């Protein structure tokens, strides 16, 4: 197994092609294979999601599942610096800042107690934080999209980020790293709609580990009784 310790270790020698389990050494072929395999895995997750606690381990599990066919480091934190027009979190700080992000999410009770508009805004902030973290060498966008869409369902919101054009999302994400979430908020608002409480409870039961699911469902039920 390759010991990935810096940026160049992720690539075949003298290339910018990521080392992969299929030993594909043509970039276009790798892009096409990755697109088809990950699309299949996303479809599988839609049918049989990975229950979790919506913490960093849950995010890692999603990345691992989506990219398991191609990269031996799928689901692992990157061990190199990364930038795409902007500089992402230093790899040595990923675990520290991830702990901060997901501890805050837990303290916010996963947004369950907020209004619809507040939930959208908090999902945007979380999306921006995870994007700035950029914990994986490959697949950060697809992983965080899956994670956020699932958390939205737990909050009774049907959010479909696949309807947003790639360049539009890249621009909005870059703006968010610079502290401006306004475009992301507009996009999330446009491509979200509320779902029934019955569907919300179904998704909580499906997407959360049993202990967390019980806590969130009890919270919803108790909130309904006090109205």
Structure description:
The protein is mainly alpha-helical and 227 residues long. It has one domain: Orthogonal Bundle (Fic-like fold). It is 56% helix and 3% strand. The chain contains 9 helices and 2 strands, in the order H-H-H-H-H-E-H-H-E-H-H. A two-stranded antiparallel ribbon has the order 1-2. Helix 3 runs antiparallel to helix 4 (116-133) and helix 4 (116-133) crosses helix 7 (182-190). It is globular. It starts with 26 loop residues before the first helix and ends with a helix.
Q: What is the total domain count? A: 1
Total helices: the number is 9
Oligomer: single chain
Please compute the radius of gyration using only Cα atoms.
18 Å
Structural class based on helices, strands and sheet pairing: mainly alpha
The CATH architecture can be given as Orthogonal Bundle
Overall geometry comes to globular
Please bin the fraction of helical residues.
Answer: 55-70%
Q: What would you give as the CATH superfamily?
A: Fido-like domain
Q: What does the main sheet amount to?
A: 2 strands, antiparallel
Mean pLDDT across every amino acid position: 94
From N to C, what is the helix and strand string? HHHHHEHHEHH
Query: How large a portion of the residues is in β-strands, by DSSP E?
Result: under 5%
Q: How are the strands of the largest sheet arranged?
A: 1-2
CATH topology: Fic-like fold
Tell me, what is the CATH class? Mainly Alpha
Distance between the termini: 57 Å
TL;DR of this structure?
The chain is mostly helical.
How would the blueprint of this fold be written?
Blueprint: H1 27-47, H2 56-67, H3 94-107, H4 116-133, H5 140-154, E1 157-159, H6 166-177, H7 182-190, E2 192-194, H8 197-207, H9 210-225
Helix pairs in contact: 2-5, 3-4, 4-5, 4-7, 5-8, 8-9
């Amino acid at each position: 197994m390759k010991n990935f310790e810096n940026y160049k270790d992720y690539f075949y020698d003298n290339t910018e092609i990521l080392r992969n389990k299929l030993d594909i050494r043509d970039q276009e072929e790798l892009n096409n294979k990755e697109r088809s395999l990950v699309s299949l895995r996303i479809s599988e997750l839609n049918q049989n999601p990975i229950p979790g606690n919506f913490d960093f381990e849950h995010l890692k599990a999603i990345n691992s599942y989506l990219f398991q066919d191609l990269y031996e480091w799928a689901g692992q934190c990157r061990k190199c610096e990364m930038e795409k027009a902007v500089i992402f979190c230093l790899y040595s700080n990923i675990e520290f800042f991830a702990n901060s992000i997901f501890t805050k999410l837990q303290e916010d009770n996963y947004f369950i107690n907020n209004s619809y508009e507040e939930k959208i805004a908090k999902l945007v902030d979380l999306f921006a934080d995870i994007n700035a973290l950029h914990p994986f060498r490959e697949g950060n966008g697809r992983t965080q999209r899956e994670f956020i869409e699932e958390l939205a369902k737990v909050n009774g919101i049907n959010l479909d980020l696949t309807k947003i054009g790639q360049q539009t999302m890249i621009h909005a994400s870059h703006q968010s790293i610079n502290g401006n979430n306004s475009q992301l908020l507009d996009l999330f608002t446009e491509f979200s709609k509320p779902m029934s409480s019955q569907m919300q409870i179904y998704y909580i039961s499906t997407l959360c580990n049993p202990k967390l699911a019980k806590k969130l469902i009890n919270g919803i039920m108790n909130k309904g009784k006090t109205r």
